[in-house]
Amino acid sequence: MSLSRTIDTPEIGGAQGPEPAPRKHVLDLDDFSQEEISAVLESARSMKEVLGRDIKKVPALRGKVVVTLFYEASTRTRISFEEAGKVLSADVINMSASGSSAEKGESLLNTGLTIQAMGVDTIVIRHPHSGAPHLLAQHLNKVSIINAGDGLHAHPTQALLDLYTVQDKLGSLEGLKIVIVGDVLHSRVARSDIWGFAKMGAKVVLSGPATLMPPDLMRTSGNLARSPFASLVEVDTDLDRAIEGADVVMALRLQQERQHAGYLPSLREYIRRWQVTGDRLEKAKPGVMVMHPGPMNEGIEISNSIAHGGNSVIEDQVTNGVAVRMALLYQLTIGSGQEL
Amino acid sequence: MQERQIMNQEDVRRALARVAHEILERNRGAEDLIIVGIHTRGVHLARRIAANLAEFEDVDVPVATLDVSLYRDDNRVRDQSQTKIQPTDIPMGIQGKRVVLVDDVLYTGRTIRAAMDALVDFGRPEQIQLAILLDRGHRELPIRADYVGQNLPTALEERVKVRLMETDGADEVALIFEDLIDGPQESTEDQQA
């Protein structure tokens, strides 16, 4: 499945020659170098300053058109891309599958070609199928594609905002212990986060029921041994042990259907063993950061008091998401500008 | 390519001292003054001018920083490595203040145009003045500097390089040009050397 591809693919283009080609698409973090991630985070910091102004508007992308093409529900990702585009003065057009020609059976590719023919500069796409953004990137030569979440594969802008949020609070990502707990198997956020945190020199520990851990990562040899980041990703199904000394604990959304699909014996057991609670956080580093990509099931993967407590940076994640997406929209539009 | 030194460390120091004196003279002191440096080298020059003002008149003039990338009209012809945006930090606000913009080289004027657009998003300054270390001519917009370290007539194909202690380890302004006296053969060799 897509997982093994994500984790095992050797670094493509991340550490190319001295002059990497201008980035045209953001599909996942696997082809980002550490240097490029740092540059995005640095620009995002300046973008956050723009968001703090009385007049939250700069003319950078005046006359550029961004389409958000969402085949799945979304609140924060979509609104945050829309805000990012509008603050930069781009025209943002929102399109969702329902109410569009997709309902009449138009293929993704034809929809993409249609949007491209309208002179759009950037397409932000969310799609239930892994690889949908790659398909558009392969076949559309005049637009930049940003992956806003595809199937179980990747959610690179979420990972970048997670990196930003941690770096913003803790100063550096190098050497940190990041615990990601929950349904890693079905989480595109976790997969992109693993790439991102590992590239920045943090150590990622995955925790949750063994049935919801990626099988490849449960093995200690074979495919994983080829992964350049194997030494930076660990699995420990015992959360109480995994959380020891953690700088960051990230809870993932547990989709309740998983219980019916046989991944979980019961929700109660999940809550007892893997809910992020105040008691468990005692074992982490003092001041541990608690994150969640949202939307939350409060009382299931995270307790209510922790979700809104002093250690939670969940709302910062949302704010930072706008800044990170501004940095990416700007870089793609200006950077590859010669071709546009 | 050849390089000729236009200003050395002492020249830069004297020019910045004179510019600081001229700012004080023209504004009759430093009241309501804010020095705004344009990234990257303008920021360092702004700090040095502020230090001069402090030394000459014992005044503490605030220094702010400005990145104008988001306001440029010529991003499309620039290098992608320029897409990293540096921090804009204007903590004191500029409403009703006299702003002295500082940059290293004045050339087409487009950076200054972008800087003025950026500034007015932060408020309505009473005045915007412009201080420049080196004016090399070739304006594409009706913009001129109020304080100039040195004027240098240049040819379009020449390039000007400002080096500062903070960013380059030495204070210097250099003119970079193709050697037109020697034949093209020689100049190729120079490049390789």
Question: Can you put this structure into words, describing what you see?
Answer:
The complex is a heterodimer of chains A (340) and B (193). Chain A has 340 residues and is an alpha/beta fold. Chain A folds into 2 domains: 9-154 and 319-335, Rossmann fold; 156-314, Aspartate/ornithine carbamoyltransferase (Rossmann fold). Chain A contains 15 helices and 9 strands. In chain A, the strands form 2 sheets. In chain A, strands 7-6-5-8-9 form a 5-stranded parallel sheet, covered by helices on one side. In chain A, strands 2-1-3-4 form a 4-stranded parallel sheet, sandwiched between helices. In chain A, strand 5, helix 7 and strand 6 (203-207) form a beta-alpha-beta unit. In chain A, helix 3 (76-87) packs across helix 15 and helix 6 (156-170) packs across helix 7. Mean pLDDT of chain A is 88; it is low at 1-17. Chain B has 5 helices and 8 strands; from the N terminus they run E-H-E-H-E-E-H-E-E-E-H-E-H. In chain B, helix 3 links the parallel strand 4 and strand 5 (127-135). In chain B, helix 1 (9-27) crosses helix 2 (41-57). Chain B has a domain at 8-72 and 84-153: Rossmann fold (3-Layer(aba) Sandwich). The model of chain B is unreliable at 183-193 (pLDDT under 50). In chain B, strands 3-2-4-5-6 form a 5-stranded parallel sheet. Chain B has helices at 9-27, 41-57, 110-120, 165-168, 184-192, and strands spanning 2-7, 33-38, 63-66, 98-106, 127-135, 147-151, 159-163, 172-177. Chain B is 31% helix and 26% strand. Chain B is α/β, with parallel strands linked by helices and 193 residues long. The radius of gyration of chain B is 18 Å and the shape is globular. The chains are: A alpha/beta (340), B alpha/beta (193). The interface between A and B is medium-sized, with 26 and 20 residues.
